[in-house]
Amino acid sequence: MSTRRLTKNDKAWNQIFSEYNILQKIREEEFYKIESKLINKYRQSRLMTKFDHTANLPAVFKHNNLRILPISRSSYIIGKFSNYKKVVYQGIDSPEAVRFPSYIKSIDYNNLFSESSVLHCAYLCGMIDELIGEKTYPTVSGRMTTDNFSFRVKSIENKTYYNLSVNKSQVEIDGGYESKNYLVIIEAKNTEVEDFIIRQLYYPYRVWQNKLNKEVIPVFLTYSNNTFSFFVYRFEDIKNYNSLKLVKQKHYIINPRKITLDDVKYVFEKTEVIDEPEVPFPQADKFTRIIDLLTILMNTEMSKDDITENYQFDVRQTDYYTNAAIYLGLVKKIKDGKLIKYTLTGKARRIMILPYKEKNMALTACILEHEVFNRCFKVYLNHGKLPSIESIVEIMLDSYIYNVSSMRTYKRRAQTVRKWLEWIINLTQKKIKS
InterPro entries, per this entry (predicted)? Predict the structure, then answer.
């Protein structure tokens, strides 16, 4: 077992696995059925079984290639199931520009911090109609119950399949949109993801494909840094959970203003370098994940476990990215009794509701006000290319950095410096289709 910090889910599942000898029973019978009332004795089952991404899986599941699926309203099955679909973003740097209806005043398209608001906005801008080529109307959403159905799910370790049956399991649809010939069912996330659990599309698909004489189109939608990314799928075999195939993906952005290198130069020239904060120097390579973290903290403060269990962060990533956001002055820690929680600073709240261009320029300033990033970006402006990792380390050694000592650590942190500066440069190279 890893020595990583254990979440509440980790601890509870470790207890259950130990007390009910689950690993041995899975070796003997290939799976293990468990009731929600048993899980509830240790922690609420709704918190203990919601693993939207592989990163959310408890340690005992990860280390033993185990996954979990609901098979009724009150029971689950644990086995070596191939549960998740990887997401690869292609063409996201060339999103299609769309207009927001000027007469709509009850939604601010720069202020979308929930899946429901993202869906409302996407529909109002005609993205869903354009996606399938027909006029659609919102018809279904929320919780519902499946009929009884059977299906096959692939083993994660070999080419064999498990045969499973579901008896009135609860499902939830973020949005359903019906046209003359189709029903589009959408699972939405307000962050970029690396994968998602197929069940969130498959179970609703089975509900509605059995009820309608229309094609049901499963769609996965992510919203990150003002970009709507749609992944349109098809189940090639209704009884095969793993037959989900990508048909197409499209990316949209509302009323964008392009960012040029001159815009970034202007921010660089007017940004003053601040004293280095006494917090860990960042090790968090994907700057888009920092933006996503700010997005999920817009609605409420969260503990480390909240962030780890509900979004695509593992324990270590939660530490890295919360520390990186604190370093930038965008997140702060607060005490809720004995519990430490994370919340946005006033500066972050002001930035996150800005339009696309202004928001990204403000975030760029947050990066460039730190000496190492500022000096490295100056190299880029002077020479047309970013400094190497070795050169970045030299700049770091010549600057004040809090609590970094070993050369190995310097190199890891230098990688983050380079990645964040690449993010800034890529903003100027985004090709927005009008």
Answer: DUF6996, DUF6997, DUF7226
Say how far apart CA 140 and CA 201 lie, in whole Å: 14
- 244-254/227-235 β-pairing: antiparallel
Task: Dig out the tokens for 113 from the structure.
Answer: 């911090």
369-384 pLDDT per residue, tens? 999 999 999 999 999 9
CATH for 261-427?
1.10.10.10
387, 376 contact by CB (below 8 A)? yes
**Residues 362 and 346: beta-carbon distance below 8 Å:** no
For the chain, the domains span 8-80, 86-254, 261-427
Angular region, 268: left φ>0, alpha ψ -120 to 50, beta rest: alpha
Digit-coded pLDDT (tens) for 228-268: 999 999 999 999 999 999 999 999 999 999 999 999 999 99
Residue 118 CA to residue 298 CA, distance in Å, equals 14
* Closest to 195 measured CA to CA, from 177, 212, 220, 213: 220
Contact 249, 228 (CB under 8 A): no
CA distances from 299 to 190, 238, 292 (A): 12, 38, 12
Residue 54 to residues 48, 196, 256, Cα–Cα distance (Å): 14, 8, 33
The answer for 133, left when phi > 0, alpha when psi is -120 to 50, beta otherwise, is left
